[in-house]
Amino acid sequence: MFNKTLTTLKILKSACKFSQNVAKPLRSKKPKSSTTSVQNFVDFKHLRVVGGKGGDGCISFLSLWANEFAGPDGGDGGNGGHVIFEATENVKDLNNVPSVVRAQNGEFGANTDCHGKNASHCMIKVPVGTVIKDSTGKVVGDLSEKGLMFVAARGGSGGKGNRFFASDTQQSPQICEYGAQGEDLEYTVEIKSMAHVGLIGFPNAGKSTLLRAISRARPKVAPYPFTTLKPHVGMIQYDDYEQIAVADLPGLIPDSHKNKGLGIQFLKHAERCMVLLYIIDMSQAEPWINLATLQNELLQFNDDLNQRPQIVVANKIDLPEAEENLKVFKKNVSLPVISISAKLGTNIEELLKEIKIIYDKKSKEK
Ligand SMILES: Nc1nc2c(ncn2[C@@H]2O[C@H](COP(=O)(O)OP(=O)(O)OP(=O)(O)O)[C@@H](O)[C@H]2O)c(=O)[nH]1
Ligand SMILES: [Mg+2]
C-alpha cells in the first residue's frame, strides 16, 4: 500500500516537472577571473580607414659590357593593400577594431625590370551582424553571414616604371609614375544585436550587482550613480546547453532621449536587445513612477522598444522599506513583477527561469 502511494507520488512529481519543462539555470563551475582589467562590450565604433599607397615606378637604364645603352629597365611599383572588414564567429564585439586602420604600402619598382611586391590586405575581423555606415550615415555594408567581406578602403595602384613608357619614338624615357594614394575614408560600424536581454534602470538600481550575481561578468558595483559608463555582457548557462547573453547598460535618467545624462547613445544599446528587463529599486518611494519614466524614455526614443518582451524586476527587497513599496508597486503595474535581492541572491532562480521562458518563446517565433 505504502509502495503504491509512493510510486503515484513519483509519477505526479515527474508529470509536474514535464509540464513546467523549463531548463534550469546552472551555476558556473569556473571561478570569476582574477585579472584586474575588466573588459566592457563595444557595440559601436567610429573609425578611419586608409588604403595603402602604391609603390612608385623606377627610372633605370640597362648598361651591358657589349651594349652600353641596352634600354630602359625600370620596373613598376606594387599595389597598396586594401582595408577589408570580414565577418567571423570568432569575435563577439568591436573591441579589437582600432580607431585608425592603415593598410601597408606597395613596394617600389626596381631596376632590371623588377616589379615591386603588392602589399597584403589588412583584414579587420568583426562579428557576424555588423552594419557599416559611411560618414553621411548611409548603410553601405551589412555583414549578416559568416565570411562576408566589405572593402572599406582600396589601396592605390603601383606606378609604372620607365620601361612602360618606352616606344619607337621615345627609346630612353626619363619618366615614371608615382604610386597612387590609397582611399582615406571614415565609417561607423555597429553591431545589430548586442545581447538577448538588456538591463534597464535608473543609476544605482542594482543592474551591475544583478549581472555579477547571474554571470561571470565583473562590472564595477558602487553606491554612487553612473558607476557603469560602458556596457558589460555576461552569459547565463542553462542545463539544456543554451546560453543567454545579458547586457548591463549604463543608467538612464529622465530626458535621456533628449541626450541628457549619458544620452541617446545608451538608449541605442537597448535597441540591440531582444528582451528588456526593468530593474527598479524598491527602497525608493513611489517606485512605479520610476518605471513609468523609464518606459516613457524608451517610447520617446523608439516606440518599437515598448513592443519587446519585458519583465519588471523589483530589486533590493531585503531592505526594510521595500516590503511596503512592493505591495503598492504590484498593484500599480500591469507587467509581470519579479521581486529579487541581487545582493543576497533572493529569488534569482525564478527570474532566470522567467528569462528562459521568454527567450524560448521568442526563439520559436523566429
Ligand atoms: N541592500 C541591497 N543593496 C543592493 C542590492 N542590489 C544592489 N545594491 C547596492 O546598490 C548599489 C548600487 O548598485 P550597482 O549594481 O552599482 O547599481 P547600478 O544600477 O549598476 O548603478 P549604475 O552603474 O550607476 O547605473 C551598491 O551599493 C549595491 O551594493 C540589493 O538587492 N540589496
Ligand atoms: Mg552599474
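^ magnesium ion complex. The chain has two domains: 44-191, 193-365. The mean pLDDT is 86.
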